[in-house]
Design a protein that fits this description.
Layout: E1 11-14, E2 17-20, H1 22-32, H2 43-68, H3 73-90, H4 103-113, H5 127-137
Antiparallel strand pairs: 1-2
Helix pairs in contact: 2-3, 2-4
Bound molecules: glutathione.
């Protein structure tokens, strides 16, 4: 993607603006369209959403990329296992990562829907991730995109 100095997708072009990094794009859209609330109002809850977005983008997605590109795959699979156990633990007894449906849940969707490409099986080992991923995939705004 030549508009992105990092040479990666996604990139959002909005008028004269070029926005990259998926977390920044998502927050930009959240702020541009406030009628759809995907961030909590409370400051601490907002921080929790950002912490989980960072967890997904700096831990789960890089491990997935290493597995997909065969870069030290055994170590990457072990990192992935640890991250998914932590995430599964965080999702115990909950429908959403933080309070209500938010950008944190949305950040999990691309990983969940491409999990086979990342050699990752989400089954009874991660019961909460299975339940959460299935519910997110069935959302009316998500299902038609799969
Ligand atoms: N931190 C970036 C990661 C973007 C990223 O790694 N994109 C991959 C596709 S999922 C890509 O464009 N890879 C092509 C490349 O690295 O040349 C984000 O969240 O936007």
């Amino acid at each position: 993607m030549k508009q992105n100095p990092y040479g990666k997708v996604p990139v959002l072009v909005d008028g004269d603006g070029v926005i990259y990094e998926s977390a920044v794009i998502n927050e930009y859209l959240e702020e541009k369209f406030p009628q759809v609330q995907l961030m909590p109002a409370d400051l601490l809850e907002r921080a929790k959403v950002r912490i989980w977005i960072d967890f997904l983008n700096t831990r789960v997605h890089p491990a997935a990329s290493d597995i997909a590109h065969n870069r030290a795959p055994e170590k990457a699979r072990e990192r992935m296992r640890q991250h998914l156990l932590a995430l599964d633990n965080a999702m115990a007894g909950k429908d959403y990562l933080v309070e209500h449906y938010s950008l944190a849940d949305i950040t999990f969707i691309p990983f969940y829907t491409r999990r086979e490409r990342y050699g990752t099986v989400i089954d009874g080992t991660y019961p909460n991730l299975k339940r959460w991923g299935e519910a997110l995939s069935a959302r009316p705004q998500v299902a038609p995109t799969l």
